[in-house]
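pinging the channel bc i need a second pair of eyes. not urgent but kinda urgent?? the chain im working w is below, pasted from the shared doc
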Amino acid sequence: MSFDILRFEDWTDPVPAAPREIASLLPDQDEGHPPVLFVPGLSHGAWIFAEHWLPHTAGRGFPAHVISPRPGGDLRAQVHDVVQAAAALPRQAVLVGHGTGALVVARALGRYPARAAVLVAPVLDGWSALGSALKANPAGSLPALFGGRLRLSARQLFGAGIPAERVAEYMSRIEPRPRRELPGREAPPTPVGRPPVLVVGSPDDRVVSRKALERAAGAYGGAPLLFPGMGHDLLLEDAWAEPIDAVLDWLAKQVPARQ
């Protein structure tokens, strides 16, 4: 890992300005907890956090925000938007990313001094994730090898316990994305200030393997927090409260509230 606060291309080829869409829910009483900024990943939008985790986080006393990815934005633009959104919050923020949104967070940590970060089912190696996708969903993944769009399947994203009608509703919101938007294998930068970083996932995830979760956690000096029986989109599972409560309990210990 290497520090990445200033980059030459930011001066020679700045990210184009674009409006940032951020949804927020604040707790009824300010308990001094840091704000939490959620970052969705490839094919998903802010809705994946707004469904359960955003209101639950605010209910636990944390100011909760989720940023919508800019349409057509590449990885550099997404990182730029997250850094700018976090810097605009009244307190130093906690960054939480899901899927490729975890990669956006990992890159943003090289430029923004977060209080802490959580990488949920992180896709940090696009080629490894594509290999897993080919095994689980060859029909939806093969086109991505030839420049087409990656179509994730319900089997990849969800565990067996979610009712079919809910799965159909969620799948209708998920957009196939071109392969060029998948990350490569460049290691994320060293986080500014070395904040605590937690990796969360499921050993039954058909997008991110257990080995990938262990590698991601090991890069930050820890071990992954695992929730068996859940899919890649564990935020939407029937037991969605288990991982977010574990994350918030961890944050309460790692990042004490400021009065």
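so Residues 126 and 183 are 5 Å apart (CA to CA). and The chain has one domain: 8-130+185-254. — does that match what u expected or am i reading it wrong
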